[in-house]
Fold this sequence. Notes:
The chain has helices at 2-7, 9-39, 44-69, 74-94, 96-111, 155-158, and strands spanning 119-123, 129-136, 140-145, 150-154, 162-167. The protein is α+β, with helices and mostly antiparallel strands. Strands 4-3-2-1-5 form a 5-stranded antiparallel β-sheet. The chain is elongated and about 75 Å long.
Amino acid sequence: MQDFFNEHRVIIINTIIVFAIFFVISLIIRTIINRIAKRSDIIEARAKLIGRYVTISLLLIALLIEAFVLGVDLDDLAVIFSSVFAVIGIALFAIWSILSNVTSGIIMFFSFPYKVGDKIEIHDKDYPIQGIIEDIRAFQLHLRIDNGNLVTYPNNLMLQKAVTLVQKDALD
């Protein structure tokens, strides 16, 4: 066992360094996201969701760096990534709508001018909606309309349609 550690000491130390840097950067970015959420009065659950997205992205980058630390040949890595991206590309084409809603949810986290409790009107040509924002989720926005019904509106459409603030903090 001692021979194993002596033989692979450099690789083990580099692996520890890569993942230590990953955890530090992840912690810093999550702290920044939480500060942005508090400053913008964004619900904590949304901040955690964005934090998870960032952590997963950083983990994938750390695993790529770790592959180089372990000495994986660039040609072998290219074959693996091209295969994985081919499968992911087919899957993403099949679920592009879901991904556009998640991406819109991330954009709305950082730059959406409306908060939970605001009464808004969505100027949709076919189906205009006016209601109070009850929740902003990863895929959709929950609106409570005047008759008491709950309407879920996709995040990607929220960024494509004109939206008017009717009343700020209508729940208060």
